[in-house]
Design goal:
alpha+beta; three-stranded mixed sheet; two-stranded antiparallel sheet; 26% helix; globular
């Protein structure tokens, strides 16, 4: 069992090597690390979804990506990849 504590959150799941490799391929194909840091609609929306992804690297650096009712072009593909990796739905689907 893999368990990580980040701030006040602990997330634990079993990850097998094949799932990790598939996720990394999907992240590369969908340009996850090239996503902009922030996504906002042109006009302010008073309700909806605010989201954030923080990726921690082994060299102690991180990439933080944030959005408010606006998503990267490949959001749904990466949502599917996160679900395949963890076995859980951890992101909402934009437009689904």
């Amino acid at each position: 069992m893999t368990s990580h504590k980040v701030m006040d959150y602990t997330y634990a799941c079993d990850l097998d090597k094949e799932k990790i490799v598939d996720f990394l391929r999907s992240a590369r194909r969908n340009r996850l690390l090239s996503w902009k840091d922030e996504y906002f609609p042109e006009q302010y929306i008073h309700d909806g979804y605010i989201w954030e992804i923080i990726i921690y690297f082994t060299d102690s650096t991180f990439k933080e990506i944030y959005g408010d009712n606006c998503y990267p072009e490949t959001w749904n593909e990466m949502s599917d990849a996160f679900e395949a990796l963890t076995g859980s739905i951890i992101t909402n689907r934009w437009g689904k």
